Amino acid sequence: MHDTKLQSGVFTLLDLLAFTFDQFNVSHTVNSLSFGDHYPGIRSPLDGQSRALKDTHGMQQYFIKVVPTKYERLDGAVISSNQYSVTEHMSHLAPGSGRGLPGVYFYYEVSPIQSYVQEKQRRLFPFLTSLCAIVGGAFSLMGMVELLINLATRHAFRGMIL
To answer: For residue 68, how many other CB atoms are within 10 A of its CB?
Structure first.
């Protein structure tokens, strides 16, 4: 349809838009996206992500929330960086709808709050205290379970000689 109109030289603006939209390929790969220096444990949710879209009339949108972050290492050195979260949205556009053009769009917003991450080394005494609390809690729980089982069996077999 489009080819015969273009060859004859008779086409409307809507035909031109439809022809242009049919030429778009919005398939993409995000190799790496970061907003600052890397530090241990940072996650970049878009790194290595691919989207193969067969829809030539598609608009892929990424809404990115950037959070300023300070990371303090054990030696006291501070790394100022940013981490981010992302929400994505794919929409279909009709030529001439006025809703935009096919493509891949990144929108970002910087958060007004800051995250502070600090490396800490666990000492032996707090570790032993936590271990004793876990073991003591397990013994207490098992004692309560035993008590409930004893009460239930006494109630169920009341008056019977075993």
So the answer is: 17
- Element (DSSP H or E) covering residue 152: helix 124-156
- Range 147-153 average pLDDT: 92
b/e 48-59 (16+ beta carbons within 10 angstroms → b): eeeeebebbbbb
Tell me, what's the pLDDT at 52? 86
Q: Are 44 and 34 in contact (CB under 8 A)?
A: yes
104, 90 in Cβ contact below 8 A?
no
- Rounded CA-CA distance 4/16 in Å is 12
- Cα 150 from chain centre: 49
**End-to-end CA, the chain:** 92
The pTM for the full model equals 0.61
Q: How far apart are CA 65 and CA 113, in angstroms?
A: 11
The model's pLDDT over 10-35, given as tens digits with 9 standing for 90+, comes to 667 767 666 766 777 788 899 999 99
The predicted model gives 55-59 an average pLDDT of: 77
